[in-house]
């Protein structure tokens, strides 16, 4: 672990094993079955704090086990609270908000795994699936709601759902939620609850997130594991200077090279139409099975695509930002950033998909003059990770832009 800092009152000592923190026996068994032999660094710090009710703002690298660090306390709390409650009397006790449907699905799946065999049921509240079914599920006595802010507001506006018992609110990938304009919706949901414990998570923590956290709760404990706003050191970044017109050919070259193609691969592009066209072109030109995934596809399609990818039927996924955040893509060790995203933070998240728990992965990144706004930040990131900087990038005047330019960027990206 690189560095770990925390600020706040009376912070408990980190745990070194799961059995040391008084968790229900069945939860310990579930952790074992899931292959969680030891807590990860962020779990060592965040679990004991969350268990004693502290409000947390947690930053840790992508793939470092942040979901487990809020789900273990949630499952433990709910299982203990429900221990002697008949099924009909159970009410929502915890809520997790995330910016995307995919991430919600993944968090809910992990929650189910950890809560198996315990008095703990979950409900998923995301767009794309019928609301009636989601409402029915909530009325069946679930303990955890996992949802996107927009859909949840929709549901709360149309139906009377009792939220008085919700005692834990998690905001996962909170910086991304703010960037996507969910601030007011998140606050609306927060105000509908009765002063819950708040746990906020992200790989990157800009100033506006800290401000929001302080406006929601007093006594905020901040936990930072690793270097915030930096990419995980486990992903080797290879930046390739390539003109826009040549990008497709370059990609085909990589995908058809035994040495360079390490499937399954995620290719990130900037638009939905671009994702569709590129996945088609890959199939036609290289014969490799590729599919696209983006926000215009239905929930069912997106689920099926991810499944076929995870079982190895599809080797290449061409994705827009929907896959950039928080999704754990098991087995993926290679990411190709075909179009640089709009911010360096998004870039950090995208290349993070190539690694979990410090396993090595690689990111091939296409860059050219069109990405000049990011040159300065990109070069800094590359240098701090010990990655090579292509000559064109190193020599560009945009890499050494004026200080006014820097100020603008600072405001725009928040760090
Ligand atoms: P993050 O939210 O920090 O990006 P995740 O919570 O999605 O990371 O976890 C990344 C991967 O690590 C997942 O596959 C998860 O199942 C696995 N994982 C999490 N905690 C542990 C642990 N203690 N031991 C083993 N694997 C773990
Ligand atoms: Mg996560």
From TrEMBL:
Matching Pfam families: DEAD, Helicase_C
InterPro entries hit by this protein: DEAD/DEAH_box_helicase_dom, Helicase_ATP-bd, Helicase_C-like, P-loop_NTPase, RNA_helicase_DEAD_Q_motif
Span of domain Helicase ATP-binding: 47-223
Lineage: Eukaryota, Viridiplantae, Streptophyta, Embryophyta, Tracheophyta
Residues spanned by motif Q motif: 16-44
Name the UniProt record assigns to this protein: RNA helicase
Domain DEAD-box RNA helicase Q span(s) in chain numbering: 16-44
Domain Helicase C-terminal: 234-397
Keywords associated with the record: ATP-binding, Helicase, Hydrolase, Nucleotide-binding, RNA-binding
Spans traversing the lipid bilayer: none
Keyword DNA damage found: no
GO MF term set: ATP binding; hydrolase activity; RNA binding; RNA helicase activity
Native organism: Coffea arabica (Arabian coffee)
UniProt xrefs under Gene3D superfamilies: P-loop containing nucleotide triphosphate hydrolases
Presence of keyword Thylakoid: no
Entry EC no(s): 3.6.4.13
EC top class, as a word: hydrolase
């Amino acid at each position: 672990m690189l560095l770990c800092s925390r600020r706040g009152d009376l912070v408990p000592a980190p745990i070194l094993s799961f059995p040391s923190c008084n968790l229900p026996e069945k939860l310990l068994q579930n952790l074992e079955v899931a292959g969680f032999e030891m807590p990860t660094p962020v779990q060592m710090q965040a679990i004991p704090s969350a268990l004693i009710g502290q409000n947390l703002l947690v930053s840790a690298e992508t793939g470092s086990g942040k979901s487990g660090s809020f789900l273990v306390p949630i499952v433990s709390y709910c299982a203990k609270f429900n221990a002697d409650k008949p099924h009909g009397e159970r009410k929502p006790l915890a809520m997790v908000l995330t910016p995307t449907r995919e991430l919600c699905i993944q968090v809910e799946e992990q929650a189910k795994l950890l809560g198996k065999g315990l008095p703990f049921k979950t409900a998923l509240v995301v767009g794309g699936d019928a609301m009636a079914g989601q409402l029915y599920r909530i009325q069946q006595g679930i303990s955890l709601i996992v949802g996107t802010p927009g859909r949840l507001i929709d549901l709360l506006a149309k139906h009377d759902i009792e939220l008085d018992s919700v005692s834990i609110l998690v905001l996962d990938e909170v910086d991304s939620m703010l960037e996507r304009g969910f601030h007011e919706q998140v606050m609306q949901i927060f105000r509908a609850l009765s002063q819950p414990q708040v746990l906020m998570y992200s790989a990157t923590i800009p100033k506006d997130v800290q401000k929001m956290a302080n406006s929601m709760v007093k006594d905020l404990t901040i936990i930072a594991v690793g270097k915030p706003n930096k990419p995980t050191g486990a992903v080797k970044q290879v930046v390739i200077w390539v003109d826009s017109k040549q990008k497709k050919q370059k990609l085909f070259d990589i995908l058809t090279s035994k040495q360079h193609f390490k499937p399954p691969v995620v290719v990130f592009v900037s638009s939905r139409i671009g994702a569709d066209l590129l996945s088609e072109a890959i199939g036609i030109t290289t014969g490799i099975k590729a599919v696209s995934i983006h926000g215009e596809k239905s929930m069912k399609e997106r689920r099926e695509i991810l499944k076929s990818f995870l079982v190895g039927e599809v080797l290449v996924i061409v994705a827009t930002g929907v896959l950039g955040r928080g999704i754990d893509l098991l087995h993926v060790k290679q990411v190709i950033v075909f179009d640089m995203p709009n911010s360096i933070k998004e870039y950090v998240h995208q290349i993070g998909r190539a690694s979990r728990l410090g396993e090595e992965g690689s990111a091939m990144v296409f860059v050219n003059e069109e990405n000049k706004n990011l040159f300065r930040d990109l070069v800094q990131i590359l240098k701090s990770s010990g990655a090579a900087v292509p000559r064109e990038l190193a020599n560009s005047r945009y890499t050494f832009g004026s200080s006014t330019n820097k100020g603008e960027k600072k405001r725009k990206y928040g760090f």
